[in-house]
Amino acid sequence: MNIVNKDELCPVCGFNFYAKFNAKPWGKRMPADEICPSCGIQFGYDDTAGGDLKDRSCIYKEWREKWIKGGMKWYSRGMKQPKDWDAKDQLKKIIKTAKWVV
Ligand SMILES: [Zn+2]
Q1: How far is the CA of 15 from the centre of ligand 1 (A)?
Q2: From the CA of 90, how far away is ligand 1's center (Å)?
Q3: Which of 36, 74, 84, 94 has the highest CB neighbour number within 10 Å of its CB?
Q4: Is 48 left (phi over 0), alpha (psi -120 to 50) or beta?
Q5: Domain coordinates in residue numbering, the chain
Q6: From the centroid of its chain, how far is CA 24?
Q7: Where does the pLDDT of residue 97 fall: very low under 50, low under 70, confident under 90, or very high at 90 and above?
Q8: 5 CA distance to ligand 1 middle (Å)
Q9: Could you tell me which residues come within 8 angstroms of residue 23 by beta carbon, excluding any fewer than 6 positions away?
């Protein structure tokens, strides 16, 4: 099993952001400024929350709920959905006790 640091994954959907962009969604204080191809959140734009980390996690939670309700669809049009992409599997990496209705 590969060990992945959580901060390398998209905090909304669990997409392996680092593997794709060779950058974490957020570095020390700087966002990657990239859009997660899986759920569509743009780090440094959709999640600025005035720099408040607590608020940021609320944004992620809300974004995740919206994404789940929308059927957990692959967001990016420019980047093809990987063949082995599994939204649920991906989510499990960030939320162990994930509960969602599809
Ligand atoms: Zn994402």
Answers
A1: 5
A2: 9
A3: 36
A4: alpha
A5: 6-94
A6: 11
A7: low
A8: 15
A9: 17, 32, 34
